[in-house]
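1st attempt posting a full record on here, be nice pls
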Amino acid sequence: MKCNVIQTDRAPAAIGPYSQGIEVASWLFVSGQLGMQPETGELVSSDFAPQARRALENLRQIVLAAGCDLNCVTAVDVFVTDMGNFAEFNEIYTEYFSEHRPARAVVEVSALPKDAKVEIKCIACRGR
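the predicted structure (as tokens):
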């Protein structure tokens, strides 16, 4: 089975030895996205909300680059450094996933790359 690398300049370049996304058959696996500006690779802000929005937008851009949209997303994993941001995250998340609601997990972690406050990854299925 052939794997296709998904790459777009509308999302930040990988900051390590991984791809933005990998497509295998009808499945798309999007690597964890931080709230980084694609142009600079720097976090958009030190605040949670702008980082969350940008991370979701980065994820969306990779999904779009694969020829899908957010309605193709089947599962989302969210990593936050403070579970106190859970309610705020839910409000922001519904800006991207309102009627379509993929399976989701939110996990508090001790730290993320670049001292980010949130990281988001997903799995999508073409033809969903």
